[in-house]
């Protein structure tokens, strides 16, 4: 089976294959996309749970920090020593004692804050009076009086408020600040500040920061107080705080947002004490992109598809192969004869078709054979009938010739003629065999010639040249007689006398008989004369019948050929299979 | 040695992670195997050309380090010296944290340590420091610098600034009260208080400013008589029977009672007090000079007198406050770091001249004291050759062993002195402080 045939666009194989390919790819892509989508959703879901827990943890740290600051602020607010130091005028020699107490107290509170990088500064109405670390915010102690933070806390005196402030570009602080109020008069006598290095806030979440997973702490206005991205600290990102506020009011744990031109998963938590939002932004591409290795999936997908295609190719080929082969074989049947049978294999269906076809062919063959046989028998019967019909004129004339000889007193001649006549009749009418040996046929011919010569004289001579090894071969009875007769009565109408030669020889497996005369000849005659028009002088078998008969008996490879030229004579050649007596059943 | 960083990827599923871990493990073990088979020379000192220096005070120490860096790199350009500024407390904390845990990761090659604290580091972590005997000759430096910077016969510190103390005086205020700078030559504290009181009466300005928690003044006072918080062994507290300390306490109370002391709470207030002209005298280390001179409008109004001695006892007109030295940590690059220090702070006269001219600091490298820069007159101080004076006083500073517990004891004293100021008996207070110190300073 040739590939070219299989690739015919209308072929079954091609159609099945292409459809299957298309379906496999479609299914593969659909399943993959769905899986990726589900994986993404699952991940985002899972991820938001994990990160909410992280955020809860961070929030807890923030609240811890807030709590310790609140405690410290409360202690400072309740300290009469500090209140006295900040509000009262006293001589320096007493002041140095109270300063020591204040310093000790604040240092003690600072120690209680531990290593949280929180410093304490207290200020009276004018300037900072004491701070635990002067390198911290702010640089100059007198700045504080006009500072925005001081103004804000003076307006909201009972609250501990948080502010973002930067001293230099990379020196960022979050300041917790509270105004200190006299309990009796409600008058502010000073304020306390807790500068917290931004790095301290960052340390709460820095362990969770990964590429594409960033944290922001924003105040209500969107100002970045702390972030894992240090360059945005101090900048304003109102869109984030807006989103966070929306999420808070709608109670969402996470939402997917477009931020800085990338798809991000946003988690937000409000830090009530700080009045800030803790926001976790996860770059979806980085997070989910890591999860799903597109290249690997594509490769896997391609691999599976190719594998499926190979299997489909092979199976389809196998299925359609038997069918195509069947079709081919069926196509070839008319060319190669009814005897050809299909060799089928493959599926049940093709097997059934093959079986059906073959049994149909069997029946057809039996039928055709029967038909041929019937026709053959009919023809045989016809020929046999013709064979048996000896022309009565031949009988009269022969009898008349013999009477004449007797009258002439040529007793010996008459006896010879009667013998020949008897033998001829015996062999033709008496012998019911269809085939006779060449020898017997030659004998019949000789007798026939003798009878004719007795009657018509010796002007036509007949000579027999027969290869001795051919005598034993069988030929159909009276197969040569019609041609002798034909030559006798038609070849010498113009020519006064002549010779008819009968030649028999073997050529390979064939027996060739030739009857040649040197008589008148015929003009461009290659066809056999339609002897139906002519009366047969001896039996019912004519020249045309001979050819028919030979082909009927031996097939189309055999038959009669005539060559003739005007004035040169006619040559008739018969080709027959060389069959001996003991082989005749083989035919 | 290779450090494999396991990238924490919560994003990836567990299976992939496990697989990766496995591969990583395989990879690492292969590397380890190959490293082992090739002979473990990887632990040997990486020949680094990067030297990190930690110091505090950008006006003084950092500037000096930058000068040294510039001077050294003119001839040794291949060495990268990075100078990093931290607050002194941060440096102490970082050093303690790292050294106590036995790790040197993240530590600098060179660190500045105050002389008062040096012994506690050297004695606690002797293996962590690199001796610089080969890089410098300690005899070139002021003698009093040797005890704090050496340990068990080995020299660890490269002495840096002297911390030599002086009494900075507002001559204009003194004149208003009828005194001059000459009255403060070879003076004792009784004389100083007398003048301070007179100045306050005349101008309303208090004499000195004081952080109640910082007893630097007392330290300076007692060192004039060669005394310290600790015995000469550097360990045993010496308080109850310390006459110098008792005298210092008495003088301190006298000044406060006379309302001669203006309190300040931190460094910036301290500087502000000086620059605002709130005080008439400033007993301090020479390193305060740049801060004093920062207020240019007061040029010509200042002078520096020798540090007052303690009255009624063996005492000299010279003392010390602060002062620090450079130390080389025992980490890769130590040889180069030591060489850097030795060729600048320990040898280079020109560098010390620059240090004097540009930073205004007084070094402890004696050969440099003969240089021209030391002889320069300073117009801010009325034409006084203050460098020359400081250099001279440096040589007279009594040598004491600061020992291990200077600041531990000072915290106790700062608290106890409050009681004394409020009227408790001095001997009781000192006995109390002695027993507290014996409990805490072990």
Automatic annotation (TrEMBL), chain A:
Major location category of this protein: membrane
GO CC, one annotated term: plasma membrane
Entry keyword Phosphoprotein: yes
Domain HAMP residues, every copy: 317-369
Gene3D superfamilies in the record: 6.10.340.10, Histidine kinase-like ATPase, C-terminal domain (3.30.565.10)
Localization in the cell: Cell membrane
Positions of transmembrane segments: 12-33, 297-316
Membrane-topology annotation of the record: Multi-pass membrane protein
Key words, A-Z: ATP-binding, Cell membrane, Kinase, Membrane, Nucleotide-binding, Phosphoprotein, Transferase, Transmembrane, Transmembrane helix, Two-component regulatory system
InterPro entries named in the record: Bact_2-comp_sensor_kinase, HAMP_dom, HATPase_C_sf, HATPase_dom, Sig_transdc_His_kin_internal
Name of the protein this chain belongs to: Two-component system, sensor histidine kinase YesM
Superkingdom as given in the UniProt entry: Bacteria
GO molecular function, one term: ATP binding
Organism: Terribacillus saccharophilus
Automatic annotation (TrEMBL), chain B:
Keywords for the protein's UniProt record, in alphabetical order: Coiled coil
Coiled coil: 62-89
InterPro entries, per database record: Bact_solute-bd_prot1, SBP
Pfam families: SBP_bac_8 (PF13416)
Domain of life according to the entry: Bacteria
Protein name from the UniProt record: Lactose-binding protein
Organism, as annotated: Terribacillus saccharophilus
